[in-house]
């Protein structure tokens, strides 16, 4: 993609570009196919067919038993909020309890914190290992008589850790506790099958897989009851009122179809390029200054994510210097006074202080090449040198440090 050539894009976990095939699928709905899907005339029927096709494609890509289990939303945060707030509304407990982990996306943790401050719920955030993986026994042990929901992400957005979702749902089967998983960061990076996972609800996001921003989905297993997210018209079978954005939905559906077709080949490419990135950083920087965060077992991590901490480097300043050459994200959000605000994930996995502020998330994608990795590592090395990091003799030739 020509527009990705000047600045190496290593921030696919933040968003992906709209893939050319997706843009082509969307194009008619920007102009001539303009009807309202709720209209019965030819213009409306064409758009209704596009919405139905998108639903079928997303359902197939995530392993849903039926397209009727897919409800379209505007974003992952909306899907997460709907799953949580809807389940709370259905609960008969005066103050329901929710089980989660301490490395969830803010769409989960900040909502739960807000609800707890309002005395509407209590929640338990189960800790994770140093690799960012929750212990199944700890999750089961956190369940209380008034627990109304367990919500645990599938793939972590910062370090790529995959949670043992199936093992947890197997253990809680028969407890009559709904299970929701935010799978926004795993779809497109590992195989996702909601039936194999055993979840009742799951969140998926279009712009993480090559579709446009502004469209997402909530999978709701047949038989799981949720109140409507929005009340009004009959869209989304009465569960989310409001005229559908056909152009966005068509893009989401096409991206899901591409993912289902390319799956294994795509995952292999992502792992290959990500591992090449790690090896290149290991050759380029002193070993004692590098720390890679997350699982070492390939089967327990997403295929594209590399969280690296560089001792002695300020990640915010590093990314500021790299802003025109390498696009990436920091693990330490920002300076506040004399301290720094670290993400929940970095705190949860106990990254040493001397490394934590130098944490950068690098995430590769469908269009990332090894040539781009070479360029990116060169720029990162220069930026580290500008912060006073001595890299003399750190470059390895033929696999050896010189």
From TrEMBL:
<dbReference type="InterPro" id="IPR016454">
    <property type="entry name" value="Cysteine_dSase"/>
</dbReference>
<dbReference type="InterPro" id="IPR000192">
    <property type="entry name" value="Aminotrans_V_dom"/>
</dbReference>
<dbReference type="GO" id="GO:0046872">
    <property type="term" value="F:metal ion binding"/>
</dbReference>
<keyword id="KW-0808">Transferase</keyword>
<dbReference type="InterPro" id="IPR015422">
    <property type="entry name" value="PyrdxlP-dep_Trfase_small"/>
</dbReference>
<dbReference type="InterPro" id="IPR015424">
    <property type="entry name" value="PyrdxlP-dep_Trfase"/>
</dbReference>
<keyword id="KW-0663">Pyridoxal phosphate</keyword>
<keyword id="KW-0411">Iron-sulfur</keyword>
<comment type="similarity">
    <text>Belongs to the class-V pyridoxal-phosphate-dependent aminotransferase family. NifS/IscS subfamily.</text>
</comment>
<dbReference type="InterPro" id="IPR015421">
    <property type="entry name" value="PyrdxlP-dep_Trfase_major"/>
</dbReference>
<dbReference type="GO" id="GO:0051536">
    <property type="term" value="F:iron-sulfur cluster binding"/>
</dbReference>
<keyword id="KW-0479">Metal-binding</keyword>
<dbReference type="Pfam" id="PF00266">
    <property type="entry name" value="Aminotran_5"/>
</dbReference>
<keyword id="KW-0408">Iron</keyword>
<protein>
    <recommendedName>
        <fullName>Aminotransferase class V domain-containing protein</fullName>
    </recommendedName>
</protein>
<feature type="domain" description="Aminotransferase class V">
    <location>
        <begin position="8"/>
        <end position="375"/>
    </location>
</feature>
<dbReference type="GO" id="GO:0016782">
    <property type="term" value="F:transferase activity, transferring sulphur-containing groups"/>
</dbReference>
């Amino acid at each position: 993609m020509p527009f990705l050539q000047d600045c190496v894009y290593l921030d696919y976990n933040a968003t992906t570009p709209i893939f050319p095939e997706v843009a082509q699928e969307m194009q008619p709905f920007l102009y001539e196919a303009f009807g309202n899907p709720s209209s019965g005339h030819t213009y409306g029927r064409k758009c209704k067919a596009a919405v139905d096709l998108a639903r079928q494609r997303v359902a197939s890509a995530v392993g849903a038993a039926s397209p009727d289990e897919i409800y379209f939303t505007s974003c992952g945060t909306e899907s997460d909020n709907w799953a949580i707030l809807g389940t709370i509304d259905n609960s008969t407990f005066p103050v329901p309890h929710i089980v989660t982990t301490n490395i969830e996306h803010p769409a989960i943790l900040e909502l739960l914190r807000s609800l707890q401050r309002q005395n509407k719920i209590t929640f338990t955030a189960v800790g994770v290992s140093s690799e960012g993986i929750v212990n199944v026994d700890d999750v089961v042990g956190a369940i209380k008589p008034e627990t109304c929901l367990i919500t645990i992400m599938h793939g972590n957005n910062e370090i790529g850790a995959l949670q043992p979702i199936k093992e947890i749902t197997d253990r809680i089967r028969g407890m009559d506790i709904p299970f929701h998983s935010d799978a926004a960061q795993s779809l497109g990076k590992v195989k996702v099958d909601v039936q194999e996972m055993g979840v009742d609800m799951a969140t998926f996001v279009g712009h993480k897989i090559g579709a446009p921003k502004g469209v997402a989905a909530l999978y709701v297993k047949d038989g799981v009851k949720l109140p409507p997210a929005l009340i009004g018209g009959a869209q989304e079978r009465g569960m989310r009122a409001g005229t559908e954005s056909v152009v966005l939905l068509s893009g989401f559906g096409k991206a899901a179809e591409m993912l289902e077709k390319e799956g294994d080949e795509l995952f292999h490419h992502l792992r290959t390029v990500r591992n090449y990135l790690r090896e290149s950083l290991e050759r380029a920087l002193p070993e004692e200054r590098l720390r890679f965060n997350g699982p070492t077992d390939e089967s327990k991590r997403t295929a594209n994510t590399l969280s690296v901490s560089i001792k002695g480097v300020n990640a915010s300043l590093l990314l500021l210097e790299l802003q025109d050459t390498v696009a990436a994200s920091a693990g330490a959000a920002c300076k506040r006074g004399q301290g720094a605000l670290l993400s929940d994930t970095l705190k949860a996995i106990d990254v040493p202080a001397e490394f934590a502020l130098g944490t950068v998330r690098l995430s590769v994608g469908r269009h990332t090449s090894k040539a781009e990795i070479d360029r990116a590592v060169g720029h990162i090395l220069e930026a580290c040198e500008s912060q006073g990091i001595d890299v003399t003799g750190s470059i390895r030739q033929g696999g050896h440090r010189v």
